[in-house]
């Protein structure tokens, strides 16, 4: 027997029922998770990893965040495992692999399903649908507007501060012929002149939805060397998931990226000022503002001043989203987050052409999901 | 906002047996939320277990209906077509006096809302059902007949 790769320390099981009556999958997940955690003699806060199945007909997207919020968990590794009947077994080795990778220590692997006599009418029947949508809050724009308003109220940040982020993205996009806003320059005034969608959020502070695709290939460091091609190393990673709905966010002015970025720096033995490129997720201007502060580039509430003090172009002292970011490039749905990885690899390989940054040894890449809910940070570098 | 909110064709809540007590109370113009008998914390939205300590000893209690505005947005372009006739309207994050935060509809007041405003429960018929909306205390006072 080789060395143990992981151990199962608790189990939970619900008594099978032919039919359920008005019970959600989320409720059943809560019941069975409780059984397993208490069987292990653990407290809920010991759970820092979460593996769940797809939730067809209840939660079409953001399943781990929805379940984490429901259970009051804030895992540092969270995934959907979608392997049909192999999902349960598939969760076990993924949990062990995540633990071995240093991403978490104790993983809740949970699957449950209700079985109602009549199929639900709506494809979405989770808490955000039940408790936010009926009050007039549908979609991400309103959620991010609430975050932006909170930042302005707490720190006195101004519409112009936020508009500088969109203007910088637009400027960088002028050097990326593939960007949706290539050849369409715009400045702070252009952003502030665009219509308000949900106050205080302007149209041009929101990414433009586009079609597109992004992919990367990951292999072992040894294999990468044998390929004799330019390659980039993953030096550190961090993740954190705290909530799904903006109403349940632990803070409106700082997000789970703060912890994820700190973990990525700790794993890689680097600091924010070591980074040659900042490739920061930018679905809305407020997301970049909060990330600048959460990454430790400046104190909380000071992002506007920081922006005035730094040049975010490829020639600048703090190159940030040199591909134009999603605000300048466009957001090809979930692939939008991958643009930040692809651009970082391009820059670190020295393949960024006209927009190549000078020194390119280390890059910080961030990803963000839902409403500042799901956060992943990577430190990439070249040997 | 001159539109009849109750005539809007907006999506209603997707109620389950577990959440029914919340919506039954809402229909009567009341706000009831769960409290954990083990850790003592208030819980919103309703769950089968306490999200703080995972106890199952959750009981329904009447909330004070008092809250504070943590953030808000005036929505000019709603995310759901049913809300178009009501735009612009205001939604906000309400920190309930009991602890948890809920998202709600904020009724128009004498002045635009400000973060930190003291709020009061203001049950309002929206889209054919009474929902626990809120209004600023200032507005509530002004409306009171002298």
TrEMBL record, chain A:
The keyword Transferase applies. GO terms for molecular function: acetyl-CoA C-acyltransferase activity. Residues 238-381 form the Thiolase C-terminal domain. Keywords: Transferase. SUPFAM superfamilies: Thiolase-like. PANTHER family: ACETYL-COA C-ACETYLTRANSFERASE, NON-SPECIFIC LIPID-TRANSFER PROTEIN-LIKE 2. This is Putative acetyl-CoA C-acetyltransferase. It comes from Mesorhizobium amorphae CCNWGS0123.
TrEMBL record, chain B:
Pfam families: OB_ChsH2_C (PF01796), zf-ChsH2 (PF12172). Residues 60-113 form the ChsH2 C-terminal OB-fold domain. InterPro entries: ChsH2_C, ChsH2_Znr, NA-bd_OB-fold, Thioester_dehydratase-like. It comes from the Bacteria. Residues 23-58 form the ChsH2 rubredoxin-like zinc ribbon domain. PANTHER family: BLR3430 PROTEIN (PTHR34075). This is DUF35 domain-containing protein.
